[in-house]
Amino acid sequence: MTTSVERTGAPADVTSPRHGPGRPVPRPARPAGAGPVAGAPRPAGPGPVAPDAATPRIPDHGPRRAPWWRPRLRDLLPTPTGTPFALCYSLILLGTGLYTHLGDPHTVHDLLTGSSTDVSNLSQRPLLTLLASALWVVGGITSPYLVALLLVLSALEHRVGGLRTAGVFVLGHVLATLLTEIPVAASVAIGHLPDSSLRRLDYGVSYGLIACAGALAGLLPPRQRWALIGGIGAALTAGSLLYFDPLTDWGHALALLTGTACGPYVRRMAQRRGAGPSGRAPRTA
């Protein structure tokens, strides 16, 4: 008689004649095509990702840096709130430049003659003459002085403010004018020059522009500063060879010296305003 016993589980320690007491009995090999064994580790490979699995992180390289030329270009362009002096003054010069081309030639000539900073006008109405002479551009709207003035004044105003930029411009314009016209008056008085030298057509913004360019060079590092000043001097020398005018040439040189002398002042003002390498600063005059 055979008794059938139902086994619910294998004991931890099984005694067998081949393995001895306390040793586990090896499992029999599974036939090919059988399903996975319960509890066996799953093979590596693609499959569903567990909800709590770590998601790979994309390295963060930070915000993209703007091109090096963008802040410099922005500091050269005028804006109504950032450079009101440069913008308004350029618009005035643009208007007078258009009038020299479109207005009545006789009226334009009379206005330019009355605005000329010659000895005769300066001796009769000095303040009005100095102001009126800075409202015209030699060459009108075709003059390169318009573009140069807009860029130089905007760059300087971004760093030191509108009032100081206007102060440097006026200082260069007035000093260069007086230091060239007073010797003319003295030469006429002692007979070295004819009386016709007391009346000559002399107007424009070149003295103030060159003074502001020299002051702007003071905000650059020493090597770039002297390179810019040397470039301005070379351009003035080339211009004097093409259009020789001793009085104007001396005025340009004096204006450049005036602007260069203002360099330490504009550096202190720029540092006080907190203008960084890009030149951005609080928009206060």
Description:
The protein has helices at residues 69-76, 84-102, 105-115, 119-124, 126-133, 144-160, 162-189, 206-217, 222-242, 246-261, 263-273. It has 285 residues and is mainly alpha-helical. The model is unreliable at 1-19 and 276-285 (pLDDT under 50).
Search tags:
mainly alpha, 55% helix, globular, disordered C terminus
In short:
The chain is mainly α and 285 residues long. 55% of the residues lie in helices and 0% in strands. The chain contains eleven helices and no strands.
Unreliable spans are 1-19, 276-285
What is the distance, rounded to the nearest whole angstrom, between the alpha carbons of the first and last residues?
A: 117 Å
Spatial extent as radius of gyration: 42 Å
Element string (H = helix, E = strand): HHHHHHHHHHH
Described by strand count, sense and barrel closure, the largest sheet is: none
Total number of helical segments? 11
Helix content: 55-70%
What is the number of E strands?
Answer: 0
User: How would you classify the helix and strand content by structural class?
Assistant: mainly alpha
**Roughly what is the average pLDDT, rounded to an integer?**
80
